[in-house]
């Protein structure tokens, strides 16, 4: 750390680089916090966690005992150990005893993206409810055709207030908070939809993962999906940056052909055309004017071959789009993790180390933007995988039962995890560096004191 501070003072490091390097170092030192404790009021497994996107202060949780709760993670309600350990009790809880509470397990709980005055819960009782945080009353209630597995709202949206809902029904429904009705439905999956995720680069693009093993991309302004991911359609490694690609393209186009190359190209052209001795017949076969052109014009989601493509052997249990919107991480009931290039729709073939994943329920994934890490619940542990090598960088063990969800807080570089043991654990960066900084002036004062 002192080297980074010295480079920053000398002007060798830019402010953004310095900030990213410090944050990456903090993430690498994550461990079970001994200074912050979340006192969970839930009597069932924790299914969903999210810190609000506006202040980064309030944690929202949903549990299988049909309850949802909110905590202030910046200010503790009680302190122990001489003020060292801060305990964070729930500010309020909405459960079965509430007059408008859910009857069955809350599978998903998300904040309204631009304000902490509203939050949304989805439940196995076939209802999605929008709550007023201040009054803890239900503002809007959407009746769904089946169990609600996952809900999501776009963090970029300025033109709509839509809640995407994945249920045991084959159709994805978009619930409009402004009108209190369904905006429209998205049809294409052949089985229930376990997970939904909005793009982080466009407010109109939605990604869904179904029990049929398919991952579909939707533009909600159009009918039908525009992309179906296929695990056999792949590209090796990371896509080069845009600037680098543009430089290589310019370099290749700017170089003229030499005389020998041009003559070779001219000489090779007729050989390829008349390779079978019949130039007209070869050209007609190569063009394939009717079927080929029709297939190119058809929507990818409408082609039978692409429509049946699968991203996983089994249900898609988790999705997470990276903060730059360029890549998608997916988890499946086949205990496989895959990283996809969003632009090309290709499987990047990153070989993630073998990990046991839950197969019967959706899991909540998390990523860190400052370091290429993906946090994945792996049975009773949470593993941090390097996105580009697939190796396990960190392993977090603290839960006694299976972990269902995790959320990475960008503001404090803290990881929150929830599991079947009804506990919410906090994983914080090591405080060793800060203690050394605090102890520095004290030692100087002792040396100079009489």
From TrEMBL:
Keyword Hydrolase: no
Gene Ontology cellular-component annotations: Cul4A-RING E3 ubiquitin ligase complex; nucleotide-excision repair complex
Source organism, top-level taxon: Eukaryota
Biological process according to GO: proteasome-mediated ubiquitin-dependent protein catabolic process; protein polyubiquitination; transcription-coupled nucleotide-excision repair
WD repeat coordinates: 39-81, 99-141, 186-221, 309-350, 396-428
Region called Disordered, residue ranges: 239-297
Alphabetical list of Gene3D superfamilies matching this protein: YVTN repeat-like/Quinoprotein amine dehydrogenase
Keywords: DNA damage, DNA repair, Repeat, WD repeat
InterPro entries: Rad28/ERCC8/Ckn1/ATCSA-1, WD40/YVTN_repeat-like_dom_sf, WD40_PAC1, WD40_repeat_CS, WD40_repeat_dom_sf, WD40_rpt
Pfam families per record: WD40
Polar residues bias: start-end ranges: 245-264, 276-286
Protein name, entry field: Transducin/WD40 repeat-like superfamily protein
Organism: Rubus argutus (Southern blackberry)
């Amino acid at each position: 750390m002192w080297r980074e501070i010295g480079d920053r003072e000398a002007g060798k490091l830019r402010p953004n680089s310095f900030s990213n390097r410090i944050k990456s170092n903090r993430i690498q030192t994550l461990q079970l916090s001994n200074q912050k404790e979340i006192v969970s009021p839930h009597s069932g497994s924790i299914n969903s966690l999210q810190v609000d996107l506006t202040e980064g202060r309030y944690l929202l949780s949903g549990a299988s005992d049909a309850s949802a709760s909110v905590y202030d993670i910046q200010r503790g309600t009680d302190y122990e150990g001489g003020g060292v350990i801060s305990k964070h009790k729930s500010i309020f809880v909405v459960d079965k005893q509430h007059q408008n509470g859910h009857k069955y397990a809350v599978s998903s709980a998300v904040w309204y993206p631009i304000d902490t005055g509203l939050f949304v819960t989805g439940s196995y009782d076939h209802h999605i409810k929008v709550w007023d945080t201040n009054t803890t009353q239900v503002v809007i209630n959407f009746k769904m055709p089946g169990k609600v597995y996952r809900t999501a709202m776009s963090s970029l949206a300025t033109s709509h207030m839509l809640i995407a809902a994945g249920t045991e029904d084959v159709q994805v429904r978009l619930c409009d908070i402004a009108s209190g009705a369904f905006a429209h439905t998205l049809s294409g999956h052949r089985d229930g939809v376990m997970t939904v995720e909005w793009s982080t680069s466009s407010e109109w693009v939605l990604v869904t993962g179904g029990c049929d093993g398919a991952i579909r991309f939707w533009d909600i302004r159009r009918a039908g999906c525009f992309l179906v991911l296929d695990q056999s359609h792949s590209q090796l490694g990371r896509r080069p940056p845009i600037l680098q690609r543009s430089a290589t393209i310019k370099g290749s186009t700017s170089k003229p052909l030499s005389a020998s190359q041009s003559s070779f190209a001219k000489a090779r052209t007729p050989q390829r055309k008349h390779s079978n001795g019949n130039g007209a017949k070869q050209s007609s076969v190569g063009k394939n004017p009717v079927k080929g052109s029709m297939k190119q014009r058809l929507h990818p989601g409408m082609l039978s071959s692409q429509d049946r493509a699968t991203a996983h052997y089994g249900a898609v249990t988790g999705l997470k789009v990276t903060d730059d919107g360029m890549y998608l991480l997916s988890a499946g009931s086949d205990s496989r993790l895959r990283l996809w290039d969003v632009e090309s729709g290709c499987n990047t073939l990153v070989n993630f180390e073998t990990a046991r994943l839950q197969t019967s329920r959706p899991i909540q994934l998390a990523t860190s933007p400052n370091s290429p890490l993906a946090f994945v619940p792996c049975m009773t542990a949470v593993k941090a995988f390097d996105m580009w090598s697939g190796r396990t960088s960190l392993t977090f063990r603290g839960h006694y039962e299976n972990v269902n969800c995790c959320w990475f807080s960008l503001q404090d570089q803290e990881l929150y995890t929830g599991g079947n043991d009804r506990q919410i654990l906090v994983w914080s960066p090591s405080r060793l560096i800060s203690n050394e900084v605090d102890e520095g002036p004290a030692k100087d004062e002792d040396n100079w004191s009489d």
